[in-house]
Amino acid sequence: MEQKAFIKVTCSILTISDTRNLTTDTSGRLIQSQLELAGHQVISRVIVPDDAALIKQKMNDLATNGSFCLITNGGTGIARRDITYEALFATIQQEIPGFGEIFRMLSYEEVGSRAMVSRAFAGFSENGLLIFALPGSSNACKLAMEKLIIPELPHLIAERQK
Questions:
Q1: What are the DSSP calls for 19-81, one per residue?
Q2: Is pLDDT at 3 greater than 60 in this prediction?
Q3: CA 6, CA 3: separation in Å to the nearest integer?
Q4: Which residues contact 32 (CB under 8 A, 6 or more apart)?
Q5: pLDDT in tens, 25-76
Q6: pLDDT tens digits, 71-129
Q7: Is 135 helix (H, G, I), strand (E, B) or coil?
Q8: How many angstroms separate the Cα of 4 from the Cα of each of 7, 10, 102, 146, 154?
Q9: How far apart, in whole angstroms, are the C-alpha atoms of residue 53 and residue 3?
């Protein structure tokens, strides 16, 4: 099996929540920890309320700060306040549909049929930013980071640079 070179990826984390702050944001902290343990760099971790305009504005700000990857958490369910999908999916130029499909499959193994309400997604935005939109649950974030994002992040960035 061919050994591939490790690519250190510069990342930002955006937590979408009306109730969390940097102290209570366990999912954002978990994502940051997982990225740093894997050798990646986190240059920004911010929280924004469930407001489409603010989410888009912060995503655009983070897209210009040198990040290659943005991982969001929160707002991917079906509650009326869950608007992450509507706010960010429209910015995706090249979707990675397998991410959402596999994430829901793995989630199904843990939480059963409730996994179907997750609107988690991944793809590259118009400006080339790799976006992963995760649920706000720490268990869901841990699953996505360990099983999907950490193993494939360098590969996804390398493929995009071809």
A1: S--TTT-HHHHHHHHHHHHTT-EEEEEEEE-S-HHHHHHHHHHHHTTT-SEEEEES--SSSTT
A2: no
A3: 9
A4: 13, 42, 45
A5: 999 999 999 999 999 999 999 999 999 999 999 998 888 888 899 999 999 9
A6: 999 999 999 999 999 999 999 999 999 999 999 999 999 999 999 999 999 999 988 89
A7: coil
A8: 9, 18, 23, 19, 9
A9: 43
Residue 34 CA, distance from chain mean position = 12
CATH architecture of 10-160: 3-Layer(aba) Sandwich (3.40)
| Measured distance CA(103)–CA(115) in Å, rounded | 9
The encoded tokens of residue 106 equal 């793995």
Amino acid at 133: A
Helix (H, G, I), strand (E, B) or coil at 4: coil
